[in-house]
What does this fold into?
Amino acid sequence: MIRLVRRAALVATLLATATAGSAAVLAAGASAAAPTVPAQVTASNWTATPVPQPPAATGSFGNAVSCVTSTFCIQVGVQVVSTDNQALITQWNGSSWAVASSPSTAGSTDTYLNAVSCTSTSFCVAAGFQRQPSTPEPFFEHWNGTAWSVVPAAIPVGSSGAGITGVSCTGPTFCTAVGNQTVSGAGPLVEQWNGTAWSVVTTPNLAAPGDAEFDGVSCRSTVFCMAVGYQAGETQTLAEMWNGTMWTVVPSSNDPAGSASEFRSVSCVGSAFCAAVGYSQGGSITNSSDNLVALWTGSAFMMTAAPNPSAGFGGALYGVSCFSATSCTAVGQSYLNAGGSQSDTQGQTWDGQSWSVVTTPNGPVSTTLNYSSAVDCLADWACVSVGDAFDGTNSHPLAASAPISRSGYRFVASDGGTFAYGVGAPFLGSLGGTVLNQPIVGMAVMPAGDGYYLVASDGGVFAYGSAIFHGSTGSMHLNKPVVGMAVTADGGGYWLVASDGGIFSFGDAQFYGSTGSISLNKPVVGMAATPNGLGYFLVASDGGIFNYGNALFAGSTGSMHLNKPVVGMATTTTGGYFLVATDGGIFAYGGAVFAGSTGSIHLNKPIVGMAVVANGYYLSGSDGGIFAYPTSAGPPFSGSTGSIALNKPIVGVAS
It folds into this structure.
């Protein structure tokens, strides 16, 4: 079997030797009838990013990558120093990659890092295996924001060898790592981190005889993880689900035309959608392998067509990342000859309707064997891939990125009337002619731009396009009215926030804290999620900031005298944030860059909100007047309702 990606291949080699919303007459919560459109954002325009070769290494390659913000990504892999294989960690700072110091364990020989998961700029887990001194065993390094350190792994009892191939964390107190162990043959391995230590978790016995292992895992919460790999001696796919208590085997399809099928990676959006990728053999491409893709529908993985590259010798997919159920990116390799000794990198995108091949770059030198081993997508910024470019003698690190920033803008009036402008922001429906129980107070857009939510002051939620209703407070008695909402980074859930700072979480949105029980100087007027959705900010009308989860406080106007009250906020992909006042005054913190304001301009109507886009931001007035900044080379003006007589004022804007 051709297995050119080294992450699992090397492990295998070593082991062989050792409520309904309430706000309207329309049934709130059910998605309103609306046009169905494909994802407005897909990773299709890839460019190579230089990665340094470690100074003492004769070769190196990347196996995995994880991004928290547009200025913080970690990729891990292997470097060859003399005759030793050593762990390699490289960090992205927003403009370039740099090799980071990686510790090792005394007495170990070879050390490989196969997986990484970061939940904040101060917490990452890198995982793989080491020989200690000759038997492979699981290996973990943790990042604390300053340095990497080795953290003891749990050694499976009775195992003659083990290694980690995938890891997924939801925060500093919960991670799941998967791989394989040798106990009378190769079998799956799961370890979990509880904030203090790693421990082995029992997995069910498999009905099919033969070797089995996990190659990838995706966790959306402490009560939902999906692990994938192979069973029956690499002839059948394997998928198991974690429910917070135990692992259960779930149905997974195989290539009906192939003799062997294997999953290599999985990415989940909530608990109702996952994409698993890999390859099959013995199908239409007999000499190498075919692409293999299956989608989780909530009860089983079902095969879906993924075209092979045009070279005609097949392909394999090794990594996948979904930033919504309608936009995923998969990477791997495209074979150029029958033996599989030559290959280009391969990219595929899912737009909610079908998979398509996209062009991805090869290595920076003259190479014959190129592959991308992993990808991570950060909503509204970019997808980043890593891999290997082999020149026949040495390996060279390979990295590339593709923008996935949304464009255009939409705003909503208090009667639910919705107005859409610009390419990438299609109109998908509104409540403009509907009798509402309570007025609309805000809107939030899905990560791929193909759906949006409207929220009323009683917490009634209305979903359009790809947006899925997950619940509301429409039938609940609230202490204070809802004033805003935010969508999770994967589009699998959302938060509602009330004026007392009470937080209501739905779908895969996790509760990280609130000000519901705190006496506030001024009411909360809005919220914004962090780039990877593992935290959020609340903002009060005096500009006071409250941060939860991985949200980092960078400043506020809470102690300043303001000309006008703050009405909203928006986060940037760098992890910073803006505050906006009713006079259009802008306050920038963290990595947010001030690009202009209407603070000194006489406005016809007050500013009600702002939306951040790739090259600046928009401000919206209650009359739908739009102000784009920076004014030079900034986001385009695509239209407004500033000169239109509106039935009700604009209350929110979103990109």
